[in-house]
Design a protein that fits this description.
By secondary structure, this protein is α+β, with helices and mostly antiparallel strands. 18% of the residues lie in helices and 26% in strands. It contains four helices and seven strands; from the N terminus they run βββαβαβαββα. The chain has a seven-stranded antiparallel β-sheet. β6 and β7 form a beta hairpin. The longest helix has 20 residues. It is globular, with a radius of gyration of 26 Å. About 9% of the residues have low confidence.
Length: 174
Amino acid sequence: ASGVEQPGRVRRSSKVTFKPAWIEETLEPPEPPTAAVDSSRVLHEQRVLKRSRWLGQWRWRWLVVTPARVRSYAVERGHESGSMPTESYDVSRELVGARILNAGEVSAASSTPLSCISLAAPPALQPAAEHVIVQVRLSAGRALLVACDGTSAAAALTTAVVNVLSAARSGQTH
């Protein structure tokens, strides 16, 4: 009976072969990403204590504000030596604002995705009483918390972030 499959019999299709297609035009590979930042584009830089996003631990970082990005580095002046940033935020797409927090606001702003986990670790580095906490608000309800050495350093950082954000929104460049 034609068209009816019989038990125990395997139906086979014809063999299909593919020939590799060759691209005749040669494409230049993309330039590798660089961590170096042109020092003339740095609008503000300073040493801060930065709260880690996941574990909520405070770590010393070198923070750099340029017209396009806010970056943190594990080493002082890491942007000049080509060190890779520990974090990098696009001003026009990720930054929402910046402000100095009052003492009572710090604990409420300090939660992290892993805040509910208790780790057996030595006492962590904490900001001292003279540190002033700056909250850089990011998209999707996230925030970058940094502790600056005093009010003037916190004001300078906040001003730099707000200025680059305003320039980016208005289409102006520095």
